[in-house]
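Quick one, tokens below:
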């Protein structure tokens, strides 16, 4: 005789949640850390993006413009081999992805990026937009 088990569509989601966050959503030691990204304008002359990437080096980071958006990607892999321990190979990987739509006045050709103290600084110069042109409103023309 076979035993029937009721199917729960959320079982895998609950298991993933416990694996990722632990049993308690508010346990700080088990929570995932998501890098902070600050996006702001400076004196209306440039857009500044600061991505806090403390565990990445310059060679791990790719910054490019794609379809009018600034794309920041970072990926790091570590591989440790130690025959003296119980494991032969220990690997870990980290990744970061952020896509930021650029404003119409962005000077895409002059974007600069630098890494300093674990923070990626990207500056996007903004072109001065033309002032709005005033159009006079007149009354009805006589025939």
């Amino acid at each position: 005789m076979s035993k029937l088990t009721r199917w729960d569509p959320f079982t895998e989601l609950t298991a993933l949640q416990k694996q990722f966050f632990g049993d308690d959503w508010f346990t700080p030691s088990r929570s995932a850390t998501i890098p902070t990204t600050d996006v702001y304008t400076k004196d209306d002359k440039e857009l500044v993006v600061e991505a806090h990437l403390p565990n990445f080096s310059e060679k791990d980071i790719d910054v490019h413009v794609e379809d009018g958006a600034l794309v920041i990607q970072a990926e790091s892999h570590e591989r440790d081999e130690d025959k003296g321990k119980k494991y032969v190979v220990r690997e870990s990987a980290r990744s970061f992805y952020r896509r930021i739509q650029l404003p119409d006045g962005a000077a895409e050709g002059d974007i600069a990026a630098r890494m300093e103290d674990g923070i990626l600084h990207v500056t996007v110069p903004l072109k001065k937009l033309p002032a709005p042109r005033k159009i006079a409103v007149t009354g009805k023309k006589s025939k």
